[in-house]
Amino acid sequence: MSDQSTALSRRGVLRAGLAGxxxxxxxxxxAQAVASNAKPDPAITEVQDWNRYLGPGVxxxxxxxxxxxxxxVIRRNVPWLTAGTExxxxxxxxxxxxxxxxxxxxxxERHHGGVAEVDPAQHRLMINGLVDKPLVFxxxxxxxxxxxxxxxxxxxxxxxxxxxxxxxxxxxVQFTHGMIHNVWYTGLPLSALLNEAGVKARGxxxxxxxxxxxxxxxxxxxxxxxxxxxxxxAMNGEALRAEQGYPLRLVVPGWEGNMWVKWLRRLEVGDxxxxxxxxxxxxxxxxADGKARRHTWVMDAKSVVTNxxxxxxxxxxxxxxxxxxxxxxRGSIRRVDVSIDGGKNWRQARIDGPALPLCLTRFYLDIxxxxxxxxxxxxxxxxxxxxxxxxxxxxxxRGLNSIYHNNGIQTWLxxxxxxxxxxxxx
Amino acid sequence: MSDQSTALSRRGVLRAGLAGxxxxxxxxxxAQAVASNAKPDPAITEVQDWNRYLGPGVxxxxxxxxxxxxxxVIRRNVPWLTAGTExxxxxxxxxxxxxxxxxxxxxxERHHGGVAEVDPAQHRLMINGLVDKPLVFxxxxxxxxxxxxxxxxxxxxxxxxxxxxxxxxxxxVQFTHGMIHNVWYTGLPLSALLNEAGVKARGxxxxxxxxxxxxxxxxxxxxxxxxxxxxxxAMNGEALRAEQGYPLRLVVPGWEGNMWVKWLRRLEVGDxxxxxxxxxxxxxxxxADGKARRHTWVMDAKSVVTNxxxxxxxxxxxxxxxxxxxxxxRGSIRRVDVSIDGGKNWRQARIDGPALPLCLTRFYLDIxxxxxxxxxxxxxxxxxxxxxxxxxxxxxxRGLNSIYHNNGIQTWLxxxxxxxxxxxxx
Lengths: 426, 426
Prior knowledge:
Oligomer: homodimer
Structural class of chain A: alpha+beta
Number of strands of chain A: 23
Helix content of chain A: 10-25%
CATH superfamily of the largest domain in chain A: Oxidoreductase, molybdopterin-binding domain
Largest sheet of chain A: 5 strands, mixed
Strand content of chain A: 25-35%
Largest interface: A-B, 135 and 134 residues
Distance between the termini of chain A: 14 Å
CATH class of the largest domain in chain A: Alpha Beta
Shape of chain A: globular
């Protein structure tokens, strides 16, 4: 483990980059290109031989798809994690993505009873329970209800990183941190619908129920329901995808993903939490003393370096852009620090703002890599001042029985050949 | 034309909405649903008969697609507009979209020589001309160059609305205003690459050249190139789509879309504009006196109501959400006003902020419709104070020969049956 690798000044990296390029792996290809095709001659204006492409015109794809060269940018599952596909998980390829928007096609999935296939013309949202006036809405009713708005939020599964409580398990950031996505939702404030129904004074909880075969149900405290929850029908500008709850889902900003009930068909107002199957059999945290933490809804501040990571090794010496994501369910990301020596030294990463509240935040650190081993870590600080803990610090408090709410600092070991591995730092 | 339709207060619309629902078209279906399935009984907790859905699990779609019920949310072309598909246009279905992000699958296309199919491993970006040091970059070189960032921008074709100069032609906002999209780009500042090459003192222009069969080439003034242009490889978090320039395009914020050269392979620095084929045969505006406006790059402030519009008629009396988009190539949108009586009276729309610079901005007006005819218009004001003009005002200055830069106020006539038509107000 060397600590000689130093982040250069921006201008320094630029200089080093071009000097180093010709000797690095990619530099050879570059030099060849310069020699054959590229002709770096100020006078070039003629048509080049790389001018040979002719693809289909505008009629080919009314709804377009990614380039065939991007076929590896896909959701992946870990078959042994669950018994069957109807109750399973796949993961967002966060190592392949840029910025903060997750494309709808690769937003991770977690279902308790398969994907519900709902005809929007038949779908209804009922509001009942401790309300003055029970209501049933069609999708068209919702879309003409006043108050529509759009906002971006991250959604993280409580079990994101759950396999890592006992040590480094899964060799890829897609698997260790890929139960997260970040899209721009459109819908209505839940408060507008609840106010329309008229919540009775005793009404302190809302039960959200999905139209899937699991009838996924979660209890939401009234204060959160009225604060910032949304009833959303669109993500990133278009209708929700089937696997994300089409035609309607609950958005519970900053809170664990299972509460964001998909295929939302009913909201019942009650005076206490329901303790339904899917909120007692799961989503509590068993401590070392046998007691369980309950109602652990908020996703604490967390971050991870997505590049380099096991699926995205370092391929070139010289300048490299280290990149990652940070988020907090309690506010916005104030800063991210990065270590390349396993936590001994830290440097402040560049945040690619704006750092929106309850939203993925992208960070970068421009580094110069001379081929030494690296132990890469990132550490988020959110707007409340909370600092992302080490995994060991978490384990001291939570024990080793937990599945959920692992927001500990991730370590990637970059070998001298650039290959990158999921490791623990003790 | 009645002017009795009045926007109610938010609370007023809410009340009217639920009172009116039972008597309107959608209200009947709603009432039936209440009677059959919905059982608005506070005690309901059992599984409902709409609980019948079971779709595929997580292995079904590694890269997901829209629901089958959304099959009409597609790009559409107008076959007679161009001679063949290799030089053609399709349009974003903006009447179907929400918020401000355009999903990559429906971003409009305009090609001068078909879609180039470029292997990113073979692709090179050359910088040559009046520079100290000509450079050639591989895609991997660009991705490890310091300074990567992400930002959302609208891209509008100069010809958006071009068919409407002589009067109302195309009956759908997809066709009159759909040559626009708004995505979140990731890449590098063009200035960083130009600075690396070292622009000579005489270098006042940049020629951007594409790798398509048209070798699409446009001249960009150096000041703009250094100010905010980007060399981008990702849109909305994933790689550019082939039809949007995969693997690399130029981003020229606020300026006409044809300058955003796709399949970007070369940037040449020069001392004057090139007057290449695609910037002289097109993209100038012939005035009534026979002279032509040239270098008309900036897209002036513009807005349009997307709902209602001919493809999205009004279907229900009572509350309705009027919605639309506004944008300006000179800054951010400061306000949008909406008229439902053909421009006699105006009301300020609600902007669903933040109203980002050089970015689509969503606006809403909650209205109550009693079945009267409406003449719907919207009028944008940008951060420079510029107010979107009427089409007649534009024609007085530009004559009737123009194709490009039609940012006049659009009028939709909503008939008593809700059907909506593209019309002119004289």
